[in-house]
Amino acid sequence: MDDLRLPTALWVEAHTRQLSAQGIPFYILNTGALGGGTVLLKLNGREKGIGLLIQQRDADGVLGWAHALGRESVEESEADSYIQRAVAR
Fold it and tell me: Which of 79, 60, 58, 57 is nearest to 68 (CA)?
């Protein structure tokens, strides 16, 4: 079975260009493997808390997002700990 997925670095570059073009601020905390790897989004909702999303595929291979810690909003320290563990893996 051929895997026609984009390398992670190319996927991230395409999306960061779109964000820049729309004037949406972002910051890349860590770049891992260029060809593949987990993509995590840490979203600062300010008074609403921190959202931490992880990119994953469903049983049919469709790419989507899920709350990494099972909740829509978490404390920033909890999100940072999750990210540190993910990077260490």
Answer: 79
Give the whole-angstrom CA distance, residue 45 versus residue 37.
25
Tokens 């860590």 appear where? 30
pLDDT 10s digits, 34-79: 777 788 889 887 778 899 999 888 899 888 899 999 998 999 899 9
For tokens 């909003």, the residue is 73
Q: What is the pTM of this model?
A: 0.75
